[in-house]
Structure formats: C-alpha cells, structure tokens
Automatic annotation (TrEMBL):
Keyword rRNA processing: no
Domain VOC: 5-129, 150-267
Pfam families in UniProt: Glyoxalase
Organism: Jeotgalibaca porci
InterPro entries in the cross-refs: Extradiol_RC_dioxygenase, Glyas_Bleomycin-R_OHBP_Dase, Glyas_Fos-R_dOase_dom, VOC_core
This protein's name: Ring-cleaving dioxygenase
Oxidoreductase recorded as keyword: yes
SUPFAM superfamilies xref list: Glyoxalase/Bleomycin resistance protein/Dihydroxybiphenyl dioxygenase (SSF54593)
Keywords annotated in UniProt: Dioxygenase, Oxidoreductase
Gene3D superfamilies documented for this protein: 2,3-Dihydroxybiphenyl 1,2-Dioxygenase, domain 1
Domain of life from the UniProt record: Bacteria
Gene Ontology MF terms: dioxygenase activity
C-alpha cells in the first residue's frame, strides 16, 4: 500500500489569537475550521489550509493557554516545510523581516529553505517547488503568485531511525530517493506534501507541549480504504486504533517504533460537510455529540479574529 503523502499535521500552541495572527495574518493561510478538540472539548481545534482545505495543505492546532512549553526532539516531526511557487522566496524573506521574524537559509538536496519559528516555537521552513497547484486564496499582501501551496514535507526526528525508516518505506509506501549528510529522503506520489526527510541519527526523546507537533497524518482515499490501511498496519506488527470519526475525515492512529504518532486520515468527506466553502472558518462548528453543550463550550473559548496585519 502507498499513501499519497501528508494529509495534515497537528501541533500544540499557546494563545489562540497569536496562532491565528501567525498562520492567517502572516503566512496567509485560510482559517478553514473553528471547532473543539474532540477528545478535550474545552479547547479549540483550529485548522488552516488553502481555500477549501485540500489534503496536503492543512495544519491544525490545539491552543492551550496554560500548557507547559514543550521540547522538540525524538518521536516528533522536527520541522514542517511549506512549498511556495518558484521565484517566491525573496517575497518571503522580506515578509519575515517585515514582521521581525528571524530566519536562516538552509540548503539540502539542491534546494534552498528559509527556516524560522512561529510565535510558539514550532520550526517551519519555506521552499520553492514547481509541483503543486497555485493557491486560490489571498490574504493581505500574500497573493496566489507567492502564496503557500501546501506542505512541501517534513523532517522527522526519531528515537529509533531504523524503525521510522521502515515505517515510512514499508508501511506507508514512500520511495527512498536520496541521502545527504545525516538525512535520508523519501517521496510519495502526490505533488504536494510528498517529501519526507528522516534524520538518521537517533534524537533524544522530545517533550510534548507548546511548540511541538502532536502527530503527522497520512492520506487514505475513503473509509473503505482506511479499513484496508488498518489491516495493513496490523499486519506490519503495529498496534492500531479503531476507526475514529473526526467529522471532516475518518482516522486511525498508530505510534511507530521511533515513537512518532502516525495518523492515517481519509480525503473524504472534507471541510465543506458542515459549512459552505465560502463560509469556512467563520463559525464555531461542533460535532453532534457536543451540540447540547454549545453554550458552555463556546463560553470557555477565547474569541479569535482573522486580522489583516498588513
């Protein structure tokens, strides 16, 4: 079995408005869904992506105001990479400087990356890529000709890189395409969210908290395909969860033996299942089992606004 690539990435951050300001206001992504953490409904689950929340473009967050600061390390996505159109890096250098966000230039596998951190400590990168559809979303000065297309990929930090490489290659079905320094590179068949670099040296275990990635999710076609993935993961000697209904996709989870939490999520039904594409992210949406508690739950959430910071 072969996944098409990254479905979404989910991280833990601090104040919700700071999170919205960074990913919508500065990076120019669209806030496509305001809901709650289905397992902890007292906190938001915020989703950002392209205009319609296409798989491979979506980053999601659990904003926890009072959580402790995490430590990036083994068992986590260490770096999240975004892809922009060819020729867009100078725009992003100027934009990061405009908002006083320090960045460095990194080179690997023949590509130049702008590396920086968000307000809460997550390590991000921007790289130019020819592949991938130009975004249809604009926000402030971030227009489609320079805007983020979606994920370029990620760098995985593992406590047991041999096992993580085995999971990415043999369980998820990505193809090894190169090695450089301490990194080994894998590619999926999609044109976005398709490049995974794995650090080959073991990394001491990270600590979950603000500024760390909670999990990386891979793409499955639909629920029927997800059940096939569930059996496939079991047959590769991993404990895997039951299928969970996340409203916008169905999902299963397993922790590979390098300690990174992997999710496999369906492309369907998508984010327009409970609000029109034109209205995505404008209302707080709750799963049906929490609707009876709407007043209580919404009262406990800090209001957030998508602001034009330009």
């Amino acid at each position: 079995m072969k996944t098409l690539g990254i479905h979404h990435i989910t991280a833990i951050v601090g104040k919700a408005q700071e999170n919205v300001d960074f990913y919508a206001g500065i990076l120019g992504l669209r806030l496509i869904k305001k809901t709650v953490n289905f397992d902890d409904p007292g906190t938001y689950h915020l989703y950002f992506g392209d205009k319609g929340g296409k798989p491979g473009t979506v980053i999601t967050f659990f904003p926890w105001n009072n959580a402790r600061k995490g430590q990036i390390g083994g068992g986590q996505v260490g770096v999240t990479t975004y892809a922009v159109p060819t020729g867009a890096l100078p725009f992003w250098e100027k934009r990061l400087a405009k908002f006083d966000i320090p960045f460095s230039k990194e080179n690997r596998f023949g590509e130049t990356y702008l590396q920086f951190t968000d307000y809460h400590g997550l390590i991000l990168e921007i790289v130019e890529r020819e592949a991938g559809e130009i975004t249809e979303w604009s926000h402030g000065e971030v227009t489609p000709d320079v805007g983020i297309k979606g994920f370029g990929g990620a760098i995985l930090f593992s406590t047991n890189p041999t096992e993580t490489i085995q999971a990415v290659q043999e369980v998820m079905g990505l193809e090894k395409v190169g090695e450089e320094g301490d990194l080994v590179r894998f590619r999926s068949t999609a044109d976005i969210g398709n490049i995974i670099d794995i650090k080959q040296s073991p990394v001491s275990r990270g600590e979950m908290g603000i500024g760390t990635v909670h999990h990386i999710a891979w793409r499955a076609e639909n629920r029927e395909n997800l059940v096939e993935w569930q059996e496939h993961v079991k047959n590769n000697n991993h404990y895997v969860t039951e299928v969970k209904d996340r409203n916008y996709f169905n999902a299963i989870y397993y922790r590979e033996q390098g300690e990174i939490l992997f999710e496999i999520a369906t492309d369907t039904p998508g984010f327009a299942v409970d609000e029109a594409v034109e209205e995505l992210g404008t209302a707080i949406k709750l799963p049906e089992n929490y609707e009876a508690r709407r007043e209580e739950l919404v009262a406990g959430l800090d209001p957030v606004t998508v602001r034009n910071l330009d």
